[in-house]
TrEMBL record, chain A:
CDD domains: Cyt_c_Oxidase_I. It comes from the Bacteria. Cytochrome c oxidase is the component of the respiratory chain that catalyzes the reduction of oxygen to water. Subunits 1-3 form the functional core of the enzyme complex. CO I is the catalytic subunit of the enzyme. Electrons originating in cytochrome c are transferred via the copper A center of subunit 2 and heme A of subunit 1 to the bimetallic center formed by heme A3 and copper B. Residues 13-524 form the Cytochrome oxidase subunit I profile domain. Belongs to the heme-copper respiratory oxidase family. GO terms for molecular function: cytochrome-c oxidase activity; heme binding; metal ion binding. GO terms for cellular component: plasma membrane; respiratory chain complex IV. This is Cytochrome c oxidase subunit 1. Keywords: Cell membrane, Copper, Electron transport, Heme, Iron, Membrane, Metal-binding, Respiratory chain, Translocase, Transmembrane, Transmembrane helix, Transport. It comes from gamma proteobacterium HTCC2207. It is a multi-pass membrane protein. Pfam families: COX1 (PF00115). The lineage of its organism: Bacteria, Pseudomonadati, Pseudomonadota, Gammaproteobacteria, Cellvibrionales.
UniProtKB/TrEMBL annotation, chain B:
Residues 281-361 form the Cytochrome c domain. It catalyses: 4 Fe(II)-[cytochrome c] + O2 + 8 H(+)(in) = 4 Fe(III)-[cytochrome c] + 2 H2O + 4 H(+)(out). GO terms for molecular function: copper ion binding; cytochrome-c oxidase activity; heme binding; oxidoreductase activity. Its cofactor is Cu cation. Residues 28-123 form the Cytochrome oxidase subunit II transmembrane region profile domain. This is Cytochrome c oxidase subunit 2.
Length: 524, 381
C-alpha cells in the first residue's frame, strides 16, 4: 500500500478514521502531544483558579470545599494528563527515528494505550459535576480522607486511575520492546542517544510501580465498597500503610517524570554547543543509579508520621545519596558546554534554564532530605516550591525545549525565533516570580493546600499569584507559536535543522515522511 | 548577536542573584518573614542550625557551579568566535565530581543525625499532653490531671467571607489556647480522631502527624513565656485552613493557678449533669452547639448537602425514638463521615443538641433529652 495518510481532502470520515485507527508512531505521537497539551491547559486553568483565590486573604471566589477539588484535580491532571503523556508522545515520535526503526514494535497496542486515555480523563473531569463534587483529598489521596470521608465520586476516580495505569504500562512495554528489538544495525546499547536510554529506564520504572498504584486504589475500592479495613484503624487497619504503598509508587513516579526530561536536555545541549555530550557512559550509569535509588527512599515523604528513629535515619541517608548521581548529570551538562561553540536558540534557552532551575530544585531537595529540618518544611509551601522547580522548570521546560527543537522535523516549518525567545523570557520570569516567593512563604510557616491564610502571608501570595498569571500567559503564547508555525511557518526541507545536531532523526527529510526507515539505516 | 548574548547573560544572572535580594528588601518594608524561625526550644534551634548549614553549603556549591556555567556561556559563545573542541570524557574529573560530593554528604550526615536525635529525645517528660485532631479542631487533654478541652477557630465566617473587616489575629485565634508552663519538659502525644491531621508549632519545631489509631510523640521545653501560633499541616477536608494551634506559655505560678481553675471547672460541671434542664435552656444551648459542631456538614438550616451529608430536618432518626438519636451521636455511624461525639462534646452539650435537632426547623417531636439520659446510655455500654 503506497498511499499516504488520509487528509481532510479525502473527506472528514476518512480523516477521523485515520486518527482513530492509526498505528503509525508519528500519528500516535502527535495525538499524545496534542492531548497532553489540552490537559496542560485544563490543569493550568485549575491552577489559575487556585492562585486567584489565594491572591488575597479571605475566601473571595470559591468555597474551601471546591478549593480542595481544584488542588487535587490540578495535581492529578498535570502529573498524569499533561507531563506523562507529553513524554510518551515524544517517545513515540522520536525513539523509532533515533534508533532507525520503521515504527514501534507493537503498533496496535500503541493505538490502544493512547485511545483509552481520553476516556480516563473524561471520567475524572466529569466527577467535578457529580453530586458531592470531585476528588478533594489531594493528588496523594491519603486514606482515610480518600476512603471513609471521600465523596461518592471517588469510585470514578479509582476507575480513571486504573485506566491511566493500564495505558502507561502498555506504553512502557512498547518502548522496551521497540528498543530491545528494533535498533538499526550498528546501534549498540551504548551508542543509543541518551533520550532513548532515559526512556528505557523510565519504562522499567513504570512497569514496576504502576501496578503498585493500582494495588493502592484497589485496596481503597475494597475499603469503600466491600467492608475491608486495609486503611481503617477502627477495623484493625492502618492509615500509614496507605502512605507507604502510595510513596513506593510516588517517589519513583517523580523520576518517571524527570528522567525523560534529562534525556531531552542531553540531546539539545550538545547540539547548540556543537560538541558531543560529555561523559555519555557516566550519564547512563547515573540515570540507572537514580532509578535504583528511587525505589529505596520513599518514606522521606513521611518524616513526620512517627517512624522509629532507625527508619528515619535510613531514609534520610538514602535520600541524601540521590544528590550524587544528580550532581554528576549537572556537571556533565555544563562540561558539555565548556569549550563548545555556543548559540542560544529557543530550545537551548529552555535547556539552560532547565539546568539552572532544576539544580536549584535539587538543592531544596537536599535540604528536605535532612529529616530534622524537614519537620519544619514538611507540608508547607517550601515543598510546593521545591517540586515546582523540579517538575515545572524541570519537566515542563524540557518538554517545551523539545517542542521547539523537533517542531521543524515534525511539520517541516520553522518557528519564529524572536517569538520563541519572547515566550521563553515570559515563561522564565513568570515562573520565578510565581515560585521563588513560595520558598519564603513556606519557611515563614504557610502550610500547603490552604484555601485561606493569615494576614502575615498576604504580600508574597499576591506576588506569587501575579507570577502565576504571567506564567499561564506564556503557555498561551506557546500554543500560538506552535499553531502559527504549523500554518504559516517558513518551510524548511533540510534534513539537519540545526547545525550541530547529530543522530539518525536528522538524516531523514523534513517534515519526516509518514514512513521512515523501511530499510534499516547503517549506523556507524 | 553579541549584544543579544550579553543581554541574555546579564538577565539570567540578575534573576538568579538579585531576586532573593529584591525579595528581602520587599519583605522588610512589609514586615513579612523570609526565613525559618529560630524558635524557642532546643529542637527548633537544632532545625534552624542545620537548615542554615544546608543553605550555606548549597550557596557555596551553587555559586561555584553557576559561576562556571555563566563563564562558559560568556566565553565560549560562537558569536565570540569560539570553535568547539571535541573531547567528551575525562575519567579524572568524573571521579572527582562523584567522590567530592559524596564526602560532603557524609560530613553533613553528622550534624543531621545529631539534630534528629534531639527531635526524638522524648523521654522523661514532666508533663504529658494528649492532642487529638478532629475535623476541624484540636482537643487537649492534660494526662493525669482530669483536664480536657476543645480548641477551635474563633475568627468568624463574616471575616472569612469579607462581610466584616479582618481582625489583626485573622485565622490565628482560638476559643481556648493550650497553656503550658516555662522550664518544664512537655511531651505531646498526638493522634487523630477521624482523618489525618498534623499538629505544628514552628517556634517549638514540633510537627507531628495526628493519625487515627496511632500515637506520635514530640516534645518541647522553653524558658520564654509568650503566645505561639501554629497550624494544621495535613490536608483534612474543607476546614483544613481553619484549625490553627495557639499555645500560651506562662510562668509556673500562673500556670498552676490556671490548672487549678480548670480542675475546679471540671468538678463544677460534673454537678450539672444530674440536674433537670428546662427545654428552653436546652434549646438555646443546643442551637449554639449545633452551629459550632454540626452545621459544618448538616448546614445551619438542617438541610444537609444532598448526596454528601444527610439532612437532619425531617430525618427518620431525628423524628424516631430518642435512644436511637442518642446512639448516633455517641457511637457515630461506622464507615461514614459521621463520627462519635462521645469524647468531643459533654453530656450536657450532647443532650442540648439532640433536643435542638428534634425540635427545630419544623421537627417537632416535643420530647426533652436530659444530660442524664446521655450519661445512662454511655454507661449502659
Ligand atoms: C536531589 C534530588 C531530590 C531530593 C533529594 C528530593 C527530596 C525530596 C524530599 C525529602 C521531599 C519530601 C518533602 C516533604 O514532603 O516534606 C520531596 C518532595 C517532593 N519532590 Fe523531591 N527531591 C529531589 C528531586 C525531585 C525531583 C527530580 C522531582 C520530580 C521531578 C521531585 C518531586 C517531588 C515532589 C512532587 C514532591 C512532593 C510530593 C508531595 O508531597 O506532593 N523531587 N523531595
Ligand atoms: Cu520523593
Amino acid at each position: 500500500m503506497a498511499h499516504g495518510p488520509a487528509t481532510l481532502a479525502d473527506g472528514w470520515r476518512a480523516y477521523i478514521a485515520r486518527w482513530v485507527f492509526t498505528t503509525n508512531h508519528k500519528d500516535i505521537g502527535t495525538l499524545y502531544l496534542w492531548f497532553s497539551f489540552a490537559m496542560f491547559l485544563l490543569g493550568g486553568a485549575f491552577a489559575m483558579i487556585i492562585r486567584a483565590e489565594l491572591f488575597q486573604p479571605g475566601m473571595q471566589l470559591i468555597r474551601p470545599e471546591f478549593f480542595n477539588q481544584m488542588t487535587t484535580m490540578h495535581g492529578l491532571v498535570m502529573v498524569f494528563g499533561a507531563i506523562m503523556p507529553a513524554f510518551v508522545g515524544l517517545a513515540n515520535w522520536m525513539i523509532p527515528l533515533m534508533i532507525g526503526a520503521p515504527d514501534m514494535a507493537l503498533p496496535r497496542m500503541n493505538n490502544l494505550s493512547f485511545w483509552i486515555l481520553p476516556f480516563a480523563f473524561a471520567i475524572l473531569t466529569s466527577t467535578l459535576f457529580m453530586e458531592g463534587g470531585g476528588p478533594n483529598f489531594g493528588w496523594t489521596f491519603y486514606a482515610p480522607l480518600s476512603t471513609t470521608y471521600a465523596p461518592d465520586s471517588v469510585n470514578f476516580f479509582i476507575f480513571a486511575i486504573h485506566i491511566m495505569g493500564a495505558s502507561s504500562i502498555m506504553g512502557s512495554i512498547n518502548i522496551i520492546a521497540t528498543v530491545m528489538n528494533m535498533r538499526a544495525p550498528g546501534m549498540t546499547y551504548m551508542k543509543m542517544p541518551l533520550f532513548v536510554w532515559t526512556w528505557v529506564i523510565t519504562a522499567f520504572l513504570l512497569v514496576a510501580v504502576m501496578p503498585v498504584l493500582a494495588g493502592a486504589v484497589t485496596m481503597m475500592l475494597m475499603d469503600i465498597n466491600f467492608g475491608t479495613s486495609f486503611f481503617d484503624a477502627a477495623g484493625g487497619g492502618d492509615p500509614v500503610l496507605f502512605q507507604h504503598v502510595f510513596w513506593f509508587f510516588g517517589h519513583p513516579e517523580v523520576y518517571i517524570i524527570i528522567l525523560p526530561a534529562f534525556g531531552v536536555v542531553s540531546q539539545i545541549i550538545p547540539t547548540f554547543s556543537r560538541k558531543p555530550l560529555f561523559g555519555y557512559s557516566s550519564m547512563v550509569y547515573a540515570t540507572a543509579a537514580i532509578a535504583f535509588l528511587s525505589f529505596v527512599v520513599w518514606a522521606h515523604h513521611m518524616f513526620t508520621v512517627g517512624m522509629p528513629i532507625a527508619g528515619e535515619l535510613y531514609f534520610m541517608y538514602a535520600t541524601m545519596l540521590i544528590a550524587v548521581p544528580t550532581g554528576v548529570k549537572v556537571f556533565n551538562w555544563i562540561t558539555t558546554m565548556y569549550k563548545g561553540s555556543l548559540t542560544f536558540e529557543t530550545p537551548m534557552l529552555f535547556s539552560i534554564a532547565f539546568v539552572i532551575l532544576f539544580t536549584f530544585g535539587g538543592f531544596t531537595g537536599l535540604m528536605l532530605s535532612i529529616a530534622a529540618a524537614d519537620m519544619q518544611y514538611h507540608d508547607t509551601y517550601f515543598v510546593v516550591a521545591h517540586f515546582h522547580y523540579v517538575m515545572v522548570a524541570g519537566a515542563v521546560f524540557s518538554g517545551t525545549a523539545a517542542i521547539y527543537y523537533w517542531l521543524p522535523k515534525w511539520c517541516g516549518k520553522m518557528y519564529n525565533e524572536t517569538m520563541g525567545q519572547v515566550q521563553f523570557w515570559v515563561a522564565f520570569i513568570g515562573f520565578n516570580i510565581a515560585f521563588m516567593p513560595q520558598h519564603f512563604l513556606g519557611l515563614a510557616g504557610m502550610p500547603r493546600r490552604y484555601a485561606d491564610y493569615g494576614l502575615q502571608f498576604a504580600d508574597w501570595n499576591m506576588v506569587s499569584s501575579i507570577g502565576a498569571f504571567i506564567y499561564g500567559g506564556a503557555q498561551l503564547m506557546l500554543l500560538y507559536n506552535v499553531i502559527a508555525t504549523i500554518r504559516n511557518g517558513k518551510p524548511t526541507t533540510e534534513e539537519k535543522t540545526w547545525e550541530g545536531a547529530e543522530g539518525l532523526e536528522w538524516t531523514v527529510p523534513s517534515p519526516a515522511p509518514y514512513h521512515t526507515f523501511a530499510k534499516p539505516p547503517e549506523f556507524k | 548577536m553579541l549584544k543579544r548574548a550579553q543581554a541574555l547573560f546579564l538577565s539570567l544572572l540578575s534573576l538568579v542573584v538579585l531576586l532573593p535580594i529584591a525579595g528581602s528588601a520587599f519583605a522588610e518594608s512589609s514586615a513579612s518573614q523570609l526565613n525559618m524561625p529560630q524558635g524557642v526550644t532546643e529542637v527548633s534551634q537544632a532545625a534552624y542550625d542545620i537548615h542554615m548549614i544546608m543553605i550555606w553549603v548549597c550557596t557555596v556549591i551553587g555559586v561555584g557551579v553557576f559561576g562556571f556555567m555563566f563563564y562558559v556561556m560568556y566565553a565560549h559563545r560562537k558569536s565570540r568566535g569560539a570553535v568547539a573542541e571535541n573531547f567528551h570524557e575525562h575519567l579524572g574529573v568524573e571521579l572527582l565530581w562523584t567522590i567530592v560530593p559524596t564526602i560532603i554528604l557524609i560530613v553533613m550526615a553528622f550534624p543531621a543525625t545529631t539534630a534528629l536525635l534531639k527531635v526524638y529525645d522524648t523521654d522523661n517528660p514532666d508533663i504529658e499532653i494528649k492532642i487529638t485532631g478532629y475535623q476541624w479542631k484540636w482537643q487537649y487533654e492534660y494526662l493525669g490531671e482530669g483536664v480536657k478541652f476543645m480548641s477551635e477557630l474563633r475568627t468568624s465566617d463574616d471575616e472569612v467571607y469579607g462581610r466584616e473587616p479582618k481582625g489583626e489575629h485573622y485565622l490565628r485565634e482560638v476559643t481556648e489556647a493550650l497553656v503550658l508552663p516555662v522550664g518544664k519538659k512537655i511531651r505531646f502525644l498526638v493522634t487523630g480522631n477521624d482523618v489525618i491531621h498534623s499538629w505544628w508549632v514552628p517556634d517549638f519545631g514540633v510537627k507531628r502527624d495526628a493519625v487515627p489509631g496511632l500515637f506520635t510523640a514530640g516534645w518541647a521545653k522553653t524558658d520564654k513565656p509568650g503566645t505561639y501560633v501554629g497550624e494544621c499541616t495535613e490536608l483534612c477536608g474543607q476546614g483544613h485552613a481553619f484549625m490553627p494551634v495557639v499555645v500560651e506559655v506562662k510562668e509556673e505560678a500562673e500556670y498552676n493557678e490556671w490548672l487549678a481553675n480548670k480542675k475546679a471547672e471540671a468538678v463544677e460541671y460534673a454537678s450539672t449533669i444530674g440536674k433537670e434542664w428546662a427545654p428552653e435552656e436546652l434549646m438555646a444551648k443546643g442551637e449554639e452547639v449545633y452551629l459550632q459542631s454540626c452545621a459544618g456538614c448538616h448546614q445551619a438550616d438542617g438541610g444537609g448537602i444532598p448526596g454528601v451529608f444527610p439532612a437532619i430536618k425531617g430525618s427518620p432518626i431525628a423524628l424516631g425514638p430518642q435512644i436511637g438519636h442518642i446512639a448516633v451521636l455517641i457511637d457515630g455511624v461506622p464507615g461514614s463521615a459521621m463520627q462519635s461525639f462521645a469524647d468531643q462534646l459533654s453530656e450536657v452539650n450532647i443532650a442540648a443538641v439532640i433536643h435542638y435537632q428534634r425540635n427545630a426547623w419544623g421537627n417537632d417531636v416535643g420530647d426533652v433529652t436530659q444530660p442524664i439520659d446521655v450519661l445512662n446510655y454511655k454507661q449502659s455500654k
